[in-house]
Amino acid sequence: MHCASASQITSELGERFRAARKVLVLTGAGVSAESGVPTFRGGGNSAVWKGMPFDVISSAQMVERDLPAVWEWFDYRRGVLKELSPNPAHQAIARWQNVFPEFTLVTQNIDGLHQKAGSREVIEVHGSIWRARCVSCHSRFDMSRDAVRPEACLHCADRLRPDVVLFGEMLPPGAFELAAEKASQCELCFVVGTSSLVYPAAGLPEIAKSSGAYLCEVNPERTPLSDFCDVVLTGKAGELLPLFDQ
Ligand code: BJW
Asked: In a 10 Å sphere around its CB, with 0-12 CB exposed, 13-18 middle and 19+ buried, how is residue 210 labelled?
């Protein structure tokens, strides 16, 4: 077990953090782990809903086959998430938007905790659990706070589905392209709490690095990206990221 300490932030990383003008942060499920949100692949592949692994229940095929079951799974998760709060990692990242002249936050998370921490512009490459989307006309409906999920599309009356990107589905138009553009322009890129297994999001750090960015991974475990990074901070995001403010 690693204890987060300011000594992990090397002098080179500290210098780059202070000097950087364009910073990009890519987050994954691990950034919300300390808020109580289960990760997908951490903890022994235990993300299962009624006997179904998450890549079965969270799949495009399941939306076709059994949309009510998909809604049951997402309604349950919204109920859990409603009670949870951002942790010091979300809060540190929200502060950084006021520190750097150009700051981009890209998240794979659908939980909305970055916004709850105060992050203003968040590129959500995998959508949001707090919206529904019409399967036909693609109208979107807010389900945040106490908004009730509409039974059907208020415009065309067709079925609604969660506005999230399931396995085998395309990312929302423009989201990845914008994230990739920002990745190609940043000087410093943090990759926080992601197993770096799910593409195309996992390709963003590669774009950043090949365009000259300094790459810093924050994760208690090693990932396929670790060897590619300039520096790896081994530990929990909620303990490590606030150390940059000191
Ligand atoms: C901590 C911590 C702490 C713990 N602090 N860290 C190229 C090669 C191979 C395959 C593909 C490819 N391109 C596309 C694919 C297919 C597929 C894919 O990548 N599959 C791989 C798994 C092999 N990709 C797709 O299907 C994507 N679509 C696509 O590419 O469209 C084009 C296309 C269409 C059709 C055919 C072909 C191409 C869509 C991917 C959508 C992913 N959706 C999900 C589910 C969302 C809905 C839901 O929530 O139910 O999104 S899957 C799931 O994984 C979720 C996450 O956003 C995503 C990433 O997971 P993440 O965030 O990395 O979490 P974990 O759990 O994996 O890792 C947590 C990490 O945190 C761990 O490392 C811990 O150690 C760490 N951690 N505590 C810091 N305190």
From this structure: exposed
